[in-house]
Amino acid sequence: MADISQEELNERVAILRRFRTLLEQQRGKFREYLTVLEKQQDSISNENTEALLAHTELEQQVVKNLMNLQKVVVPMRQMYNSVSASTPASAEAEQRTIENLQQDLTDLQEKVLAQNKINRELLKVHIGQIKMQLAGLKNPYKNVHSVYAQKQPVSQLVEVEA
Question: What is the full DSSP assignment across 11-48?
């Protein structure tokens, strides 16, 4: 392995640390997203539409934050991959930490996808129940003429006395 300057070593270590920090932030966001999805499942089961709406809005914000963070993580991952092959043994602990973080992220992503699938299925069932309830409703005014729609006799002549 070729000797590298202290400046280059410091740069590589800084990239590793920044990448680790970004992965930790992303892991935190995924945990937050998983928590929101679990609470959303409870709201669906309890048929609490207000809480479901609030969780959906919160979910959208978390997903937006994840997407913004992902825009930074992808280039940083490329920098990490280009640097990690030639990083000295002194930074191996950082690399193991990053590999563990990446594995945690993969596990969290799988859990999020599974929870999302559960929520979609619950929502499909709930929407089906609502459709059945709507189909079962009977309009009490269906074949009844409205009082306001009836024609009233209107006089055509006006009597004027002076």
Answer: HHHHHHHHHHHHHHHHHHHHHHHHHHHHHHHHHHHTT-
> What distance in Å separates the CA atoms of residue 93 and residue 78, rounded to the nearest whole number?
19
The pLDDT of residue 121 is: 92
Segment 106-123, tens digit of pLDDT: 888 888 889 889 988 988
Q: Residue 136: pLDDT above 80?
A: yes
For the chain, how far is it from start to end, CA to CA, in angstroms?
122
Where does residue 77 rank: exposed (0-12), middle (13-18), buried (19+ CB within 10 A)? middle
The tokens for 45 are 């089961």
Q: What is the DSSP string of 52-71?
A: HHHHHHHHHHHHHHHHHHHH
Provide the CB-side half-sphere exposure for 45 (13 A, CA): 8
Angle of CA points 68, 10, 22, to nearest 5°: 20
- Distance separating alpha carbons of residues 44 and 52, to the nearest angstrom: 7
SS3 assignment, position 129: helix
Q: C-alpha angle with apex 97: 94 to 99, nearest 5 degrees?
A: 110
Residue given tokens 């410091």 in the structure block: 10
